[in-house]
Amino acid sequence: MKPVLQRLFAIAWLTVKAALRLRVVIALAVVLLACVALLPFFIKHNGTARMFTQVLLTYSLYLCVGLLGLASLWISCGTHATDVDPGQLQLLAVKPAARWQIWLGRWLGIMTLNLALLALAGGIAYGMLQWQARRLPLEQQQLLAREVLVARGSAREPAVDLEADVEKVFARRQQEENLAELDPAMVRREIRDQIRARQETVGPNFRRMWDVDLAAHRERLAGQPLHLRVRFHTASLKSDTTYQTVWVIGNVESGRFARIPRQLTSMVFHEFAIPPNLIGPDGKLHIECENRDPNTLLFPLEDGLEVLFSEGGFAGNYVRALLVVACWLALLTALGLAAASFLSFIIASLLAMTLLLVVLSGSTFGGVLEDGTLLGVDHETGAANSRVLDGVALPLYRVLHGFTQALQSVSPVERLSEGRTITWTQLGDAVLRIILLGGGLTAGVGILIFSRRELAREQVAA
Amino acid sequence: MKTDSQNIAADKVVAVRGLTKVFKDLWGRPKARAVDGVDFEIRRGEVFGLLGPNGSGKSTTIKILLGLLYQTSGYVEVLGRSPREIVTKERIGYLPEESYLYRYLTAAETLNFYGHVFALSADDRRLRTEQLLEMVGLKGTGTRRVGEFSKGMQRRLGLAQALINDPELIILDEPTAGLDPVGCREVKDVIQALARRGKTIILSSHLLADVEDVCDRVVIYYGGKIQASGPLRELLAKPDSLRFTTPALSRSLVEEVLAVMRREAAPDSVRVETPTQNLESYFISVVNRARANAQNTSGATAGNRVAAYLQPTAAEPSAGEKVLERLMDVAPLPPKPEAAAPIEPKPDEGKLAALTQAQAPVGAPAPKSASAPAVTDDAEALKQAEGKLSSFLNPPKQ
Description:
Shape of chain B: globular
Largest interface: A-B, 32 and 42 residues
Strand order of the largest sheet of chain B: 5-6-7-3-8-9
Distance between the termini of chain B: 75 Å
Number of helices of chain A: 15
Radius of gyration of chain B: 25 Å
Distance between the termini of chain A: 49 Å
Number of helices of chain B: 14
Strand order of the largest sheet of chain A: 1-10-4-7
Oligomer: heterodimer
């Protein structure tokens, strides 16, 4: 074995041994197993097997992610910082192990623990899920197999580029009206909202049509039932009000179509099966929604309608989801080690937690940047409430938003609970973004600081 | 052909010139000047002592030599390179002032781990672990966790890990701290044995007896500066005085000798004292006797000879080496207590009589061994000797 690898593995082995001998892993494994095993008895749901399974899956995985994520931060900060403070690291640093080897060896050790614990907790959660599913009536089991415990692909209507229409309308209005005193960005925003609303809304007794391209999957989907996943909003915020809709899927003229009336509530996603073989000869699935309600319905462009179809088994999808979780654990471990490379255990833990919150606050940064101000605007004057604060905060938010956006990848828990496929491409993307980009940058900074750090303390007579 | 200066340069293991270390606070303001313009060189095979009170700059100097601290200014070269280079670290062994061992590892795992860090093969790691544990007296404790060890046992294991790579330069920071007298003696014996095998040793200590026993050359620190330096014999020698050590003599003979001496030197500069052995030697003789009587201890045992791989070749040591080993080993366990009894030198009455006639030589420094008293375990003989000396040193008034 090459000396570099021998050193890396030795340090990784030391890290694993420390966690085992100090009973950290055992305590963590017991907590994880207890939580995952007891979770089904504390879950509240709407009584359907589908919802119960989705909630169980979501909670189990979030529990694993949360506990292991925090444990990763804590162990990485603890292992590294508590080796520096009492001096153990001095003894290692005077040996021919480069600082980057010590850093990377620790990362490998903690990741070995993480993967072992993730496999254990994930395995137990999977077993619990299957055990619970097998206790259901056959019909419910089949429903779960079709909608949750499956890997499904999805297709949507191609995204509409609104900007060309916005510019056209803006130019026309500039000619027709005096817009000189108005903020052009605000005018464009209003125009964009109007165009968007026209495309999203379906008035009473009107219909909305979608054409979803399934040409790439046509042969594979022959004879297979598909699922529609729909969501709409209404002016009413009552969650229990239902709205009468009629769904026409397929080509009416050719006679190959299905007509499905549905009473649906607003705001939540609804899934229902549609018969097979309704895809047209051009590979497109034509869908219409007739609004038979006196209220207007609004189908969001992003997720108003989606066609779902079976692509593979649940087990493979589950493993890929766990691997995406492992990517995040790798980043958190790097974050903890980087913080502990120059700070004491407590301070490093606090810093790592803060950085974690920053990473999780990506949507907040996005919202602030979209609004263009931190404390909102004065609605009378249209000016920002705090220009000074905005001047400082917005550039910082822009950087943080850019960083968090770069780390955005597939959400494994959400996709798994919806029975959606996590593709190998998405897993590769997660590895690239989270481990190589996020983890690489974090590791680079951590190793640089650690390499320059003096590991001994001063001992000078007063 | 190498010139003398090239040979000297090749022999130079450590070179420190104008070394200064200033510790700074969070804002970069100077807080303490730990080492201040220090210069010294250490040559191959030397046992070099860094002496000084606590906080005088010894440990800071050592940590700079190890690359754990970075000098503010000055030049440091260890084994011809920067101390921060990996190739330099491959040739150094370090025993820190405190036990920085991993408490959750066993003794054998500790040595195995550091063996891995030095990229040793599995066979080498196993062999060296066995030999080192035996050498430092921890044979049989290899499967015990370091956290269960006493401070002295941790110190021994610390010494073992410092030697796992068969280093050329061994840096020992307070190597005898926390050790019992037997352990201290063993560590000092190991240091001497390693030095005789060409290893260069830097010893930092504030225990002067340790340094005196093993060091060839020392520097004395105070306030971050070197206050004195040089070969130990030169620093400690008193060339204007002599010391004789003899067996107990008759009072009349002593009076005769004194009379002769007082003819040459001022009467108050000639003294007769009862020599005493130092406490360490006495303690070790007592422990050795106890061992011979098979009294067991649950702690560390006596260290054995220096690990075979630390010798110049792995082959059978030469006859000379064997003698050297025997000389440097802690006194081996004798089958009978009597074996530990020293050989009492017999007074040569003729020579002593001649001495009373002849002029005493002056100028030659007393050999180091002359100051090391022989050990006797014969209580009766000791009692008699004490009585004789007592009456000799305090003669009844006439």
